[in-house]
Amino acid sequence: MIELVQILIEGALVGLVYGLVAISFVVIYRASKIINLAQGEVLVFGAFLLWTFTEGAAGMGYPLPLPVAIALTLAACVAFGWTIERSVFRPLIGQSGFTIFMAGVALLILLRGLAQLIWGAQSRSAPAILPEGALELGPFLVNTRLLIGAVFTIVLTQALHVFFTRSRLGLRLAAVAEDHTTAHSLGVSVRQAIAVAWIMGTVVATAAAVVLLSGSILSLEVAVIGFKALPVALLGGLESIRGAPLAGLIIGIFEALASAYLDPLTNGAASGLLPYVVMVAVLLIRPYGLFGWRKIERL
Amino acid sequence: MRPTGIWFSSYAAEARILETRRARAWLGLLTAALVCLPFLTGPWLLGEMTNLFITMIAVCGLYVTVGMAGQINIAQSAFVGVGAFTAAKLSGLGAPIWAVIPAAALITGGVSVLFALPAARVKGFYLALTTLAAQVMFPIVILALPMSWLGGLVGLPVSPPSLFGIGLGTPSGLYFLGLAFAALAVWTTYNLPRSRVGRAFRAVHDNDSVAGVMGIPVTRIKIAAFFAGALYAGVAGAILAYLLQFVTVSSFTLFASVWYLGMLIVGGLHSPLGPILGVIFVTLVQEGLHSAGNAILQSGSGLGGGEVFAASSVVLGLCILAALIFEPRGLAHLWTQTMTAFRLWPFPRN
Q1: Would residue A109 count as lying in a domain?
Q2: Domain edges within chain B
Q3: CA–CA distance, B264 with B257 (Å, rounded to integer)
Q4: Residue B8: enclosing H or E segment and its boundaries?
Q5: Residue A168 belongs to domain spanning
Q6: pTM score > 0.90 for this model?
């Protein structure tokens, strides 16, 4: 029993990290109607930027205090998000969702190449920003880094939810997510929306990178997390901020249970397959995800 | 638009793909050149060309699914992998090549149908996600199955092909194999849009609600689009297996699927010429960067093969973006425009 609860706790905490990465998908979609396949690469870019300002700067002989490094990283994320909006998505405003999806494919290839050219393919240790260790809660052990990440995810979710449903700017972004042309004709600046979306998406992805990688290994392969979080985002529904961490919890718990009880029987395949099986099953029952907007189609 | 002086005296003549005698002559010349190539060059170029043919077959399949039917498929590389593993397994059991290639195509098609079945309820990007599931599941399943089935982490050896007692395992044999099937793939890709199914694909691509109202069985057509695209992937995988002589999971990654999509976008999504031009262009760029990289390597600046690959990633990414932003119809459209301008010279193209 204790073992089961321990597995559930770990699964839930890991699931909330998936949820955090999924939020970075949802934020971009919710504000600009762009499904960004390259989100994993954006996350890696954020992680490398952070590495540059902490370990990289220290390695070159200019050690920066941590708050300054984080501020510089945030500034670089804003610049990065704005650059992508300006150079890639502004010319594509009004194009079909298919074209914009393909632009995401292009970004995926481009960013991976760029990251390798700038930082090289070798893996390195990620800066340890969150404390490593475990908290003892009765008979259970809780990973501190993941716990902080989980609390952060929940707070961020609530904050973003309020932002998107209550604030004026958030509602304007929601209009852009509904339809570019309609939003434009109502006087909403689609350009501004996409820029805001990308800046928020990059910042959230970098935060996810901190939670995910703090004190472990940073390499180009980390980008795979994007494809692990995409099912989570779709499961929750692409328009729903609060759906993402919930879907993350579902996927994380199922994955932990499968890896504890089914993996020994299936040669280690079950925990890899299960998130996708759950995702396809849920999509068959609810095609727009758990909390997504149900679209009405007209001829 | 046709220039003046080209006219038809029968419907059959008008329906031809190659309308003029000059076009047919050019095709004959191209065929002759491609057939003569193995007798003129060495094994390096032949290997490159065979690779190009295999990629072209796979991207033609992607054109059918993505370009014609509008269903996003990010698992083409996994489907190629299914074809390759099927071919390796069957050839290991002693099956002849004329049985292996169709079997690989059909089994790959069957696997793709499995992942296209959610089309009954899910549509749009959510459907593309099931193909992502296929791509991610493929290596996990292969690695988890017992070693004796599909080789697991080690991979499967492939016995060299032979047809009617003639060994096809040589570079030129594989070249002809690739050439024959690439020609078949291109021929079918050009003819599919003119068929009933092809028009149904196009209708589903343009607007699936309207297609349903017109009496097209939308779900069945979407599944058929995935099946057709995967048939090409299966053939490409089988030939790739014969070329590599050893198949492992690591050759069929998600990134390769994305790369295939990139080639299709650069070439053009709306014309059967797209996959051909896209594959040739990207291969040329890759080879150009490769030789440039080698030149730099010899000058001793310490660049490795990884950087060359990264540089070609950057170039391909920029090419796709440029295509999407400046010419969404891709190289295929540029090609037709150039040809029209050339034909109408000195009059301006309207």
Answers
A1: yes
A2: 20-252, 254-350
A3: 11
A4: none
A5: 2-127+142-285
A6: no
Among chain A residues, the shortest Cα distance to B147 is held by A267
Phi-psi region of A237 (alpha: psi -120 to 50; beta: other; left: phi over 0): left
pLDDT digits (tens, 9 = 90+) for A246-257: 999 989 998 899
**A259 secondary structure, DSSP code:** I
ipTM: 0.84
- C-alpha span between B60 and B269 (Å, rounded): 10
Rg from Cα positions in chain A: 19
Q: In 10 A of CB A122, how many CB atoms?
A: 9
User: CA-nearest residue of chain A to B305?
Assistant: A121
Which of these, A9, A22, A5, A4, lies nearest to A246 by C-alpha position?
A22
Instruction: Show residues of chain B in contact with A273, CB under 8 Å.
Output: 137, 140-141
| Strands B156-157 and B162-163, sheet pairing | unpaired
Task: Please tell me the distance from the alpha carbon of residue B133 to that of residue B135, in angstroms, as a whole number.
Answer: 5
Retrieve residue B275's tokens.
Answer: 């996959």
- Residue B129 near chain A (CB below 8 Å): yes
Contacts of B243 (CB under 8 A, 6+ apart): B47, B50, B51, B54, B174, B178
Q: By C-alpha distance, which of A165, A44, A201 is closest to A114? A: A44
With beta carbons under 8 A apart, name residues in chain B contacting A290. Answer: none
Q: What is the pLDDT of residues B154-202, one digit of tens each?
A: 888 887 777 776 777 788 889 999 999 999 999 999 999 989 999 999 9
Number of domains in chain A: 1
Q: Is A298 within a domain? A: no
Strand partners, B246: B157
Q: Over 80: is that where the pLDDT of A230 sits? A: yes
Tokens of B57: 């077959």
Spatial separation of the C-alpha atoms in residues B79 and B197, rounded to whole Å = 22
Q: What are the structure tokens assigned to B180, written together? A: 């024959």
